[in-house]
Amino acid sequence: SQKIEQNSEALNIQEGKTATLTCNYTNYSPAYLQWYRQDPGRGPVFLLLIRENEKEKRKERLKVTFDTTLKQSLFHITASQPADSATYLCALPFSGGYNKLIFGAGTRLAVHP
Amino acid sequence: GAVVSQHPSRVICKSGTSVKIECRSLDFQATTMFWYRQFPKQSLMLMATSNEGSKATYEQGVEKDKFLINHASLTLSTLTVTSAHPEDSSFYICSARAGGGEINSPLHFGNGTRLTVT
User: Fold this and answer.
1) B97 contacts in A (CB within 8 Å)?
2) pLDDT in tens, B83-107
3) Number of Cβ pairs closer than 8 Å across A and B?
4) Which CA distances in Å does B62 have to A98, B48, B59, B66, B68?
5) CA A101, B60, B117, B41 torsion: positive or negative?
6) In a 10 Å sphere around its CB, with 0-12 CB exposed, 13-18 middle and 19+ buried, how is residue B92 labelled?
7) What CA–CA distance (Å, rounded) separates B31 from B74?
8) Nearest-CA distance from B42 to chain A in Å?
9) What is the widest separation between alpha-carbon atoms in chain A?
């Protein structure tokens, strides 16, 4: 069955540095992958979509890569700010139903001033 | 932007009672809505897909008689947790796609409902 793995350990970085979060998946070749941000007690908020034929996508300080050979996506936040502190989730379409999404457990990012 | 409103945000109920959670798409129509639950520090687990005008489809292991879903209009889906027990305590979140609902378009989430069963 599909599996998504994200670092369960929290990532602590200094303000201004680049944060890099990892999403690995197995037993599947998704047509796309999405990244979401979730703050405590709130629903996730969509950040970026990357398709299988795209190597890299950027949006302001965010960058996502998608390596279908390694079955891995990397999510980068450059010039990080304390306001970027949150949990970041990657999501893939279900193999049996592309309109449904399966989520990773998320990685908590803490940016310290 | 697309807004999904979920109500209530928190509810505490006694064991054996039922709780209804509402999910509304405020500025778009949603023929399909998705219900997730989330335990602390765990991923969102898809419970069911709510389909306007027809029966919901449930994921494996989710009891349809326990978690009743009704999607009576293009802007409203409800989840009723029947005969709630402490193990049903969790964070329930609904979501929907706006626009044409293309399969790779983002999900818009409500802010969730924290259910505590005592």
Assistant:
1) 99
2) 999 999 999 999 998 766 677 788 9
3) 60
4) 20, 8, 6, 8, 11
5) negative
6) buried
7) 6
8) 5
9) 44
Task: For strands A32-38 and A45-51, give the pairing.
Answer: antiparallel
Q: Looking at CA atoms only, how far is residue A30 from chain B in angstroms? A: 11
What is the spatial distance between Cα B64 and Cα A78, in angstroms, rounded to a whole number? 44
Rama region for B26: left / alpha / beta (φ>0; ψ in -120 to 50; rest) = alpha
**B37-48 pLDDT per residue, tens:** 998 888 899 999
Q: What percent of chain A has pLDDT over 90?
A: 83
